[in-house]
């Protein structure tokens, strides 16, 4: 850990590729912890006189506590330590009185929101499947392994084994954070194993099921933006969060092209999605309702009041309003899988072109070859998506389909 005479400029501008601690040469024991996300926090570290164990006391985060305030606070705590006091014991005792609900809210604000694109999932799972089950007012110090197992088993008993795995993953991250931030000395999740096997979903809707859902979109009690989103899920084959979060500046109406930035895609890569005439018509209809907001590139196309519709909202709409009368339930992601499967099996689209439409990175498209083939893939993606939209229209209308195979292009 580097030792420096910390300055305000350094503290304000320092960056780190991995979590790094900088020791202040002015106040011995004062450290600045910097994370790759840019978060900075102050601590003092000292060795106990009687047991020789190193202890840490977190003083707060920058910029809420600047360098001058951190040094002043460090001097005060170090003075107490020299007189025999142990501030970690005092602070941990206070923190242990926090309730599960309070700590859950703190985790979402302090960790999940700044660091996780899926923070809303963490917030929902903790509130619904952890806090509501274990008890909002339970002291965090009283929570044990049995409480965690009960929360997980509840999801399994509901017939939701995959959801139970998600609960364990999120509650584990939550309590590990609590330990790292010194709210607890140990995690009650330690040693808990997954209790349900993960199974890959293989749900592909039949043509008849797609036809039913497509017609049901107009009949169900859905908002106009939600209807547009669900139809675009089928027409584009993109992820629900990416479709629902589409922004005005991402769409080129003249080129009939939607370019989703890397910040909003799962693999972090910019993704160009050609819009078939049917998809373009939906996007134009959404833009027409935006009014003055259409001039702002950052404005979402699909809004509920003033905020963009979330992938969770889409999933709930599909689950509650668009399920089939018979057969297994389907999810928004199944629309994506259905498009890919129908492209391959019914329309003979080249597998590499399907991967390109889905924004999957394969060896065939990685590296230099992927860069050189980008424009060619755009043409192939447009052809595939237009063909798919025509197939979808034929299926919904009941017309006879004329399938023209897409021949794989050399080098693509």
Automatic annotation (TrEMBL):
PANTHER family: PROPHAGE INTEGRASE, PROPHAGE INTEGRASE INTS-RELATED. Belongs to the 'phage' integrase family. SUPFAM superfamilies: DNA breaking-rejoining enzymes. PROSITE patterns: TYR_RECOMBINASE. GO terms for biological process: DNA integration; DNA recombination. GO terms for molecular function: DNA binding. Coiled coil: none annotated. Keywords: DNA integration, DNA recombination, DNA-binding. InterPro entries: DNA_brk_join_enz, Integrase-like_cat_sf, Integrase_catalytic, Integrase_DNA-bd_sf, Integrase_DNA_bind_dom, Integrase_recombinase_N, Phage_int_M, Phage_Integrase. Residues 200-385 form the Tyr recombinase domain. This is Integrase.
């Amino acid at each position: 850990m580097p030792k420096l005479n910390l300055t305000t400029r350094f503290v304000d501008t320092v960056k780190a590729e991995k979590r790094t601690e900088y020791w202040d040469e002015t106040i011995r024991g004062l450290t600045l912890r910097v994370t790759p996300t840019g978060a900075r926090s102050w601590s003092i570290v000292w060795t106990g006189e009687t047991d020789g164990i190193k202890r840490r006391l977190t003083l707060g985060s920058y910029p809420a506590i600047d360098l001058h305030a951190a040094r002043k606070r460090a001097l005060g705590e170090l003075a107490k330590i020299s007189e025999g006091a142990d501030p970690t014991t005092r602070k941990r005792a206070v923190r242990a009185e926090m309730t599960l609900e309070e700590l859950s809210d703190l985790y979402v604000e302090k960790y999940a929101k700044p660091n996780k694109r899926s923070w809303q999932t963490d917030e929902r799972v903790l509130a619904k499947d952890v806090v509501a089950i274990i008890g909002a007012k339970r002291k965090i110090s009283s929570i044990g392994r049995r409480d965690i197992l009960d929360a997980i088993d509840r999801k399994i008993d509901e017939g939701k084994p995959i959801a139970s795995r998600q609960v364990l993953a999120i509650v584990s991250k939550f309590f590990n954070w609590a330990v790292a931030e010194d709210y607890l000395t140990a995690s009650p999740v330690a040693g808990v194993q997954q209790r349900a096997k993960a199974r890959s979903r293989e749900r592909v809707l039949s043509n008849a099921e797609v036809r039913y859902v497509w017609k049901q979109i107009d009949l169900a009690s859905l908002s106009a933006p939600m209807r547009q989103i669900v139809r675009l899920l089928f027409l584009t084959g993109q992820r629900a969060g990416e479709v629902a979060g589409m922004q005005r500046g991402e769409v080129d109406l003249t080129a009939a092209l939607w370019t989703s930035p890397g910040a909003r895609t799962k693999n972090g890569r910019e993704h160009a999605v050609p819009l078939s005439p049917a998809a373009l018509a939906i996007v134009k209809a959404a833009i027409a309702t935006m009014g003055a907001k259409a001039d702002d590139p950052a404005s979402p196309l699909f809004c509920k009041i003033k905020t963009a519709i979330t992938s969770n909202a889409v999933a709930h709409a599909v689950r509650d309003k668009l399920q089939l009368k018979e057969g297994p339930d389907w999810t928004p992601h199944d629309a994506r899988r259905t498009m890919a499967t129908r492209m391959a099996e019914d329309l003979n689209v080249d597998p590499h072109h399907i991967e390109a439409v889905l924004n999957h990175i394969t060896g065939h498209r990685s590296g230099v070859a992927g860069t050189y083939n980008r424009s060619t893939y755009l043409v192939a993606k447009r052809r595939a998506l237009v063909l798919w939209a025509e197939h979808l229209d034929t299926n919904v209308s009941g017309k006879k389909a004329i399938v023209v195979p897409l021949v794989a292009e050399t080098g693509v």
